[in-house]
Amino acid sequence: MSAPFDAETEFDRQLDRLVQLGYPALADLTEAAFRDLVAPLRARAVEGSAGLPAPTEPRVPFLLVTTRDLIGVEARLELTTLAGKRKPGFLDRHYAEDDLPRFDPIKELEVPDGPAYLLFDVDRGEEFRNLAPATAMEGITAQGRLPLTIDEGLAFITLYPAALASNRCFSLVGSRCGDKRVPALWISQGAPKLGWCWYGNPHTWLGSASARPERSGLE
């Protein structure tokens, strides 16, 4: 029998990984200041993940999400890798210069202000493979869930690299910029790639990631 899920230990593991990747320096903080910044979220991780199962490749109980208010998207993307690989993640060339800041959380999401927050019961949404994001969005909301943003998708594959796998990639319908593009994370050249697809187009290898609606931020 597997050991019960320990949310405190998992929070510490996620925080340690961000520190090891160099997040404090990217945020222009000391390691101690970075740890102190997110420390209030530790107890909320325990409370919010109560009753949720231990992490698996497709689904995890919570994520410690850092935002572009703290560190830019491309800087965090370059620190992602596939499980067991070393090639850094990269941005699709079809993003125009200064395009990424235009992708904001959709109005249905209540994303906390600030540099970091918690996201609960996160799933890469492989059940929505070969469905257009528009159709997947209907299925996600019917389950009482909401889609992930770019920041949340990056947190997912940073903290759980195995979540991004061959034919198990995912759209991030929670970030939009007013047109029909939907950001997505997939594999290209042996590394994670942040690209975009059309809201009405399905792909056999691309699902749509989702999570519980509630997000817990710093106060």
Structural account:
The chain is an alpha+beta fold and 219 residues long. It has one domain. Helices cover 27% and strands 23% of the residues. It has seven helices and twelve strands. It has helices spanning 7-21, 23-26, 31-38, 41-48, 73-77, 133-142, 150-159; strands at 59-66, 90-91, 104-105, 116-123, 146-147, 169-171, 175-176, 181-188, 191-198, 206-208, 210-211, 215-217. The strands form four sheets. A five-stranded mixed sheet has the order 2-9-8-6-10. Strands 1-4-12 form a three-stranded antiparallel sheet. A two-stranded antiparallel sheet has the order 3-7. Strand 8 (181-188) and strand 9 form a beta hairpin. Helix 1 crosses helix 4 (41-48). It is globular. The termini are far apart. The mean pLDDT is 96.
Q: Care to give the gist of this entry?
A:
With 219 residues, the protein is an alpha+beta fold. The chain is 27% helix and 23% strand.
Give the helices and strands, then pairings.
Elements: H1 7-21, H2 23-26, H3 31-38, H4 41-48, E1 59-66, H5 73-77, E2 90-91, E3 104-105, E4 116-123, H6 133-142, E5 146-147, H7 150-159, E6 169-171, E7 175-176, E8 181-188, E9 191-198, E10 206-208, E11 210-211, E12 215-217
Parallel strand pairs: 2-9, 6-10
Antiparallel strand pairs: 1-4, 3-7, 4-12, 5-11, 6-8, 8-9
Helix pairs in contact: 1-4
